[in-house]
Structures are given as C-alpha cells and as structure tokens.
Amino acid sequence: MKVPTATYRIQFRNGMTFDRAAALVPYLKRLGISHLYASPIFTATSGSTHGYDVTDANEIDPAIGGRDGFERMVKALKMEGLGLILDIVPNHMAASLENPWWRDVVENGGKSRYARHFDIDWTRRLTLPFLGDTFEKVLEAGEIAIRPDPETGKPSLAYYDTFYPLTPPSYAGREAEVLKAADKAAIAGLHDRQPYRLMSWRDAPRELSYRRFFEITGLVGVRVEDGTVFDDTHRLILELVHSGKVDGLRIDHVDGLADPKAYLERLRHETGPDCYITVEKILGEGEHIPRDWPVSGTTGYEFIAALGNVLVDGEKLDTLRDAYHRVTGRPVDMKAELRAAKLLMADNNFAGEVESLLKLAIEISKAEDRESTLSETAMKSALRELLTAFPVYRTYGTRAGLPPEGRAMLDTVLAKVRSGPDAPDAHALTFLERILIGDVEQAAAGQASVFRTRFQQLTGPLMAKSVEDTLFFRHHMLLALNEVGAEPLPHPFSPGRFHAEMQARLESQPDALSATSTHDTKRGEDARARLYALSEAPQLWPDAVSRWRKTNRAAVRMLGDGPAPEPEVEWMLYQALAGVWPADLHPEDIAGLKTLEERFAAYVEKALREAKLRTNWGDANEAYEEAVIGYARQLLGPNNRAFLADFTETIRPFIRAGLVNSLTQTIVKLAAPGVPDIYQGSEGIDLSLVDPDNRREPDFGTLQKRLAEEGKLASGEAEWQSGRLKQQVIAALLHLRQEAPTLFRKGEYLPLEAVGKRKDNIVAFARAEADDALIVIAPCLVLEAFHAGLFPAGTEWWGETEITLPPKLANRRYRDIRAGGTVDPRERIAVAPLFGEYPFALLLAE
Description:
Layout: E1 7-10, H1 18-31, E2 35-38, E3 42-44, E4 54-60, H2 66-79, E5 83-88, E6 92-94, H3 100-108, E7 126-131, H4 135-140, E8 144-148, E9 155-159, E10 162-165, H5 175-179, H6 184-192, E11 196-200, H7 204-207, E12 212-213, E13 216-221, H8 227-242, E14 248-251, H9 260-271, E15 276-279, E16 297-298, H10 301-311, H11 317-328, H12 334-349, H13 351-367, H14 376-389, H15 404-419, H16 426-437, H17 445-467, H18 495-508, E17 513-514, H19 525-532, H20 540-551, E18 557-559, E19 562-564, H21 567-580, H22 590-611, H23 622-635, H24 641-671, E20 675-679, H25 700-708, H26 717-722, H27 724-739, H28 741-746, E21 748-756, E22 762-769, E23 772-779, H29 783-787, E24 801-804, E25 814-816, E26 822-823, E27 828-830, H30 831-834, E28 841-845
Parallel strand pairs: 1-2, 1-20, 2-5, 5-14, 7-11, 14-15, 15-16, 17-20
Antiparallel strand pairs: 3-4, 6-13, 8-9, 9-10, 12-13, 18-19, 21-22, 21-24, 22-23, 23-28, 24-27, 25-26, 25-28
Helix pairs in contact: 1-2, 1-25, 10-18, 12-13, 12-14, 12-17, 13-14, 13-17, 14-16, 15-16, 19-21, 19-24, 22-23, 24-27
C-alpha cells in the first residue's frame, strides 16, 4: 500500500470541475502534496453543491466533466506522480426521482428490483414526505393533479414540477381515462392504490418508512450489507481502483452502516491490499478505532480536538466560563444540557426511529412469555434512557451479538443508567440488555438482530445531532471548542495530554488523516486558532463584550419571549465575528464590510436554527430571526463607527496570537503522527464559518502566485496575515515528508520538556527513526507578548528558556530547515537564538 505523505481536499461542484482541478496539479506538486483527495464525484441531484446526494453510483457526474473530464484529471495527476483518493458514500443515496433506482421503487413498490436496495419498511406503504402539507389539504387546494410525466408520457401525480409515477397496475388498460381524471375523490382513490403515500415533510420525523441519513429525508439509507446491493453500488468504484486510476477511498459516515466491519472487510477484499482506505468516524473520549478494521484510520476529526490541549489555556478556562455564566445569568450544567439535547432528538427529531425500536422490542417481548408483563411505557422509558446515555457513536454488534469491546461499553452505559437519577424500570432495562447481547429465545433471534442493528444505527445520528448540531450552537463560552469530534463536557487541557494522545495515535493509527479544516468543520482552522487565544484573556474578553453590548444596546429588540438577541447570543455574535474578521479589513471599507455582513448573516441564521431554542429549521420564528440578524447586520454597519473602531482595536492582539497559533497548529499537524490533510485553500488563511461558507472556492490564482515566488521565508506582519508564511512552511515540511517518509510514518514520537521562564509557552517534540530525527519547537499561549507590542515575540521575550534533549537526541548536529545554518546543542537547546526572525524551529539531524 502506498500511504500518502499529504492529501489535498478539493470540493467539486460550485464551479470546480475535473479540468479546473487538473490545472491545479502542478501547484499541488510544488506544494508537496502526494494525493488529491476528491469530494464525491458520482452523479448527484441537479444543482447539488456537495455530491453526497448520489443518484447514480456508477456514473461520473457530467456536471463536473463526466468520465472524459475525469480521465483528463487522472492523466494530469499521473504525469506529476500524484495519486487520487475518492470520497465514497455507501450509506445513502438521494431519495429523488432523478435516482433511477429510487424512481423504480416509487413506481413499483415492493415488486421493484431495487426494493431491497434501500432500507425501507415494507410492512407499510413507502412514505414520500415532500409535500408542503398533508395530502388531503394539498389535494383540496388543487396543488395535485393527474398529468402525463413530461419524460415518459405515463400518468403521474403532479405536484408543482414533480411528477410521481403511478404504479402500472393502477391504470392498466385505462391510461387515457386516468389521465382525464380531475375529480378530487378519484385522485385520492388513485393515490390510495399506489405503493407509496405522499405526505407532509413535517410528518417525516414520526411517520417515515425508510431509514434516512441523520434527519435528511432526501437521503435514503442503502443496504450495502446485502451482497447484491454492494455489487451494484460499487461497480464503478472498484473498476477505478483496479485500473489504478484511484489509489484510495474515504468512506463517508461508516457508522451509518449495518455492519461496518463486515462492509470494510468486503471492501478490502474487493479492492486488494494496496488501496489506502480511511473512514469518517467520530471518536469519543478515550475511544479508539477498532483494531480489526482493515483500514488505515479515520479522517482525523479527533486530531482537531487534540490540538486544543496545546492552544487552550486550561488554567484560565474556568475564569472565562464564570464570566460567560454571569452574562447568561446562570451556571451551565453541561451534563444536564447534553441529556436535554439528546432527549429532544429522541422525542422529536428521531421520534419515528425510536418508535420503530419500541415496536420491535414489544414484538420480541410477546414472543417470550417470561417478558409478557412489561408495559409499553416502561419499555419506552428504558429505551430513551439507554439511547441518551451512550457516550460514543455506537457499538459494533452483529447477528452473533456484541463483541467484547461493545459488551464492555454496554455494561458501562447500563451501570450509569441504573445508578442515575432517572433510572427506568429495572426489568425493562434488563430486557433491552438481553436483546442487545443476543440473549433471547430462538424464535426472537432474528428480530433481536434487527433491533441491535437499528439501535446502533440510531445512537450515532442521535449523538451527532445532539452535540454537533444542537449543543455546540447553544453554549458559546469558547466557540473554538465547539468543533466536530470535540468532547462537549468540560475536561482538563494540557500539553501532556496532547503528547499522550499523539503517542497513542502513533500506536493505533499512524496512517490516519490529520485534519484541521474540512467541509464539515464549524469554522476554518485559522478562525479557530484565533479564538483559542480568548482562553488566555478571561478578563479582557468579557470586559470587551460588556462594553460592546452597551454600545449596541439600541439594536436589541424586546419580543414577547424575551430580548433578541439574548445576552448569550450577543456573546456568541461578538466571538464569531472576532473569528471571521479579515486581518486587513478596515472599518471604513464599506464594500468589505458588506461582503462580510452577508456571510455573517447567513451564519447567524443557521446558528440560531441549529440551537433549536427560540427558532428551528422546521418552525422558523421569523420575528426572532429578523431581530437577531438585524442586530448582527448593525454591528457591521459603516455608521457604527464607535463599535467598529473599538472592536478592531480590541481584537488586534487576538489576530496576532491567532496567526502564531495557526502556524503552531500547522507545524504540529505536519510533523505529528498521521497523514496531514490540507483542505482547499487552508494552506493560506482560512477564516471561514460553518457550511456552506467553508465550501466557497478559495483564490487559487493568488495561492499559486505566492508559492511560485522565490526567496527566503516570508517575514513581516503582512506576510503572516496574507498566509504566505504559512504556505511556505507547509511546502517546506511536505517536501521533507516526501524525502523521509519512514521518519514521519514510523518514527517515535518523543515529547520534549521546556524549562525556564517561558516553559509554558512552548510545545516541543521530536520524531526519531534509526539515525533520522526532527526536532519541532513551536510557541503557544503567546497573547501576553502581543499586549507588549511584540510581533512576533522577539528573542528577549524567549530568554532563559531551553528545551531538554534526551540522550537519543543530545550531542548531535542539526540543520535548521527553516532559516538555514546548523545547530550543535549538547543536552539542551536555548530557544531565544532560534526564535529570532521566526518564532518556531525545525531542526533536522545531520
């Protein structure tokens, strides 16, 4: 297997085509990338902005260049010696009539060849939740009629521009008569004879008859656990791998599959041993990827979380938290808030999935006389508590029951539930335990297996939507911590914790991707790096927020349910604005302010709806949203001079500290265990907000021009702010990784101790393999230096600080790959001489 030395993620669509990507290949080569990492390229719904809504898994999307364009891109990659990794989507497809398989299912129901390709409950009619209201009300309003399908000419139920095909037996021999039907009762009768039922989108959470991707009814679950379905959905993927055009695969949402291990084993068998495979998986606190999965590791969300241990001032975090609580008017119990968010999901957003599990459990209890006394109420309560108590995405049980790790996790969860203040009926909980471990009578074994699979496929979405898409938009103490893969509950932050995680990473998944920005992160890596610095100013930041709230209090509107925005949302708005503010944006730049305003307003709307407190996606509170977005726009109004002047002056040291944090974050990613993944444009400065903002195309022209410029490493604040220095450091380290791949893939990870005056402002480690060694010394927690007017912090600030070298690294000569020259330390390295022009050091053993 050829493990990448570095990947570069490109988002296709939105203007990015294969030919445009091919034109970037020489640039990627100069940057030091070994593999282009492509977002989904298979045919998706018309106008798709992301490609995860696949309509044809065996066709390369004509919208981005089709097969011919793909071949041209592959040729360009091969000419430069670069590989290709594809993001594939085995868990779901588009529930769209553009999907020929889905259309066939809609038309023919359970008799369709593809009826078992999708995860559909065929004990009832297929539900199609795409109406604006109930079928009856839509019909009464005259919004549904019988019309010929424009493409086939056959009778269909037409709802605006969508034509749902009638099943042939419902009009066989009387097609002309049916096409003339206009009577509402006749139309309703025809609808009743279809294998599907049209219904309101609002009823989907409780009545959906198919497994969906998270809450998205437009994405239907695919049963790749079935051999035929696997073959049908992977035909083109495997052809591209076997032909050598594709070198690796990224598996989207692996936890959504019925049996991830079995799927990965089948995929590995079909691709062969040389295909590089990673999986998108969120690892919980202390969780590791299963060792028996035949993959190289995850896509790296846990690496983002680990970086907080270096860049967050853990000793000051409680002070910042107390200040936030004073603003909100109450201390926040995050455990209780997490439970509340999960219960909201279980009782509302995933009510149908929970109800299906409950129905299965009741059927199993009826098959076992010994459990016939269990009430439905007791069973539901036990199920809710069990679902909400899971601290990780899922376990990995199969038809045979739970593996030892899964059983251990279940035991831990059960103990927590039984001893908790909301403990359900003990008999009901024990009964659910027996189902999950497979301790049921033979007559119920099949249903128990289905229950186990459905339960495991639900705990992941329940966790994701509760934490990433609810809790992280409700609590804003430090937005940098509200990131995909992060632990929502408070925990200590320390460099020692980071070093331990990197040593574990080297042991468990040295070839996994290491991400800092992705298409799914809540904000770009440089925005996050800047916001980390707020943890160093637990007095300054709250004082500034208090001042700004007073300045803008006239923009707060009083509504019937309270002020808009409320104090905690004001705190969030100022912090989010601080993260996204371009370093070169001047308060008098009206056009620049307007551009930022539009991006920021879109973010605010999404943040409010994801929080699900005073508004949400399904039932928007327009008055509240209008008031808060109006407040956000007011912040950026060119006439708001007093605020803008104060704001830009206040965040200047945070901008500078963020640039240093960004450089440290980048260097650590490139040198620590794992394969560094560069998200498109983040080799420059990435101050993006949550999607779709983070999926905007970067300025590739400027990036290419900067990298082509010759000369020494960029210096001066303008070069830091432009991202040129960051880009140059990336290029230097990526080429080093190509020259010494074994050092970075297998070399030991050695934490190095800093001593002296600035020991708490240094993160240092080494990679060592045989005679090769690289010492990394980078700054952290340096906000204090910028209040002294230093940028970057000069040699005086770093005086009396040294790095202690273990015997393996001491008394050797090193080449400074950053500034040239050599370093000849003994047992210690003095930091100040190294941190003259650039506050970091990369020392390669000679």
